[in-house]
Structure prediction request, 431 residues.
Amino acid sequence: MPKKNEMGLTTKIMIGMGAGLILGILTNLFLADVAFVQKYIVDGFLKVIGSIFVASLKMMVVPLVFVSLVGGVTAMGNVKKLGRIGLKALVLYIATTTIAITIALTLAVVVSPGEGMKLDSKSAAFTAKEAPPLGDVIINMVPSNPVQAMAQGEMLQVIVFALLFGIAITLAGERGKHVLNFFNDLDSVIMKMVDIVMALAPIGVFALIARTFAGQGIDLIKPLMGYFLVVVGAMAIHLTGTLSVLIKVLAGLNPVRFFMKMRSVMLFAFSTASSNATIPVNLKTAEEKLGVDNSVASFTIPLGATINMDGTAIMQGVATVFIANVYAVNLSLSDYLTVIMTATLASIGTAGVPGVGLIMLAMVLGQVGLPVEGIALIIGVDRLLDMMRTAVNVTGDAAVTCVIAKSEGSLKRDVFDSDAEDGVKLNALVK
Ligand code: ASP
Prediction:
């Protein structure tokens, strides 16, 4: 394993991100009207590099999840354990999302962003998309055509098919073993592909961030500062509070070490704004840096990317209060409970891709009778918040994964406690 190279990677990605940020902001400030720059640099070079990077990450998601999960399920050895892990994951994912949105609502009610804000005339511009009904979500978990499920990247369907396939391999005895060997070898090969794409991350992240900030500008945030800061504050509380306590109390692990080891995963999530695209990096980190056994991580990481969205739930909680304030609508206690339930359930049915949080927000607003057009008020800062909340989403997946692994005796403590991390001496840091 090329430890040395990998150790420097996070730093390189951070440098790429910093450079992208500077270039993006400068372009936005000084070169926004220069057609050449917009055409050939922002929508040319940066777009090409960024899109290729995200596509290469996504390219590995379905093969990796399928192959890794088949191996993981087979390694579990029995269906009982599989059911137990699945149940723990479901309970923990729902619980963390519920806590996240409760924090968000509380903070939003206390700070009350948006009160007295004038309605913008462009607020009718948002047309909501339909959110999928829960019944359909459950029915759709079973693929009628696994190839189609893979082709369309339907993660829950791919997970269900992989689980069944893995169970069947175990039941098939000697013959199943041949298939399993093949899958284990294939897993190593795809992990190598992840290595290759990760090595390109510094330039990919640079391009993504530069383009985003070239288009976004900081101006958009100013009128929405209150909303923006409450979302960021709630996410910070969730990370340092909820997830740290989870890591410390339920997994018996050091939260600082956990977050240090999660840095590159968070950076990937931040720059791609997609939990799905981050699955390969999150899975690799869970296994190789956090010490979680493949039998747990291969199941809980992709599942989490699909159903667990703490950061998204936080945005939805704050956005609901914000929009209610702007429209001067009073929300009752039962409205708040409805928001908590709807946002938690909605996150189960929607895949982790950029911007999906807003579609789910339409559903939440509808449930409490708030105008869906209110979304147009916050859309200007959503890209940046999307990036941040995706980082929170994937961190929640990894935290729950560690807790489950610990409870199953599937966490390699020596790997988690290993010292050097991208040039940082973690032992000195966490003492
Ligand atoms: N982009 C988020 C994710 O992939 C979902 C969202 O909040 O829009 O996790």
In short: Residues 9-430 form a domain with the Proton glutamate symport protein fold (CATH 1.10.3860.10). Strands lie at 420-421, 424-425. Residues 273-275, 309, 312, 352-357, 386, 389-390, 393 surround aspartic acid (CB under 6 Å). Confidence is low (pLDDT under 50) at residues 1-6.
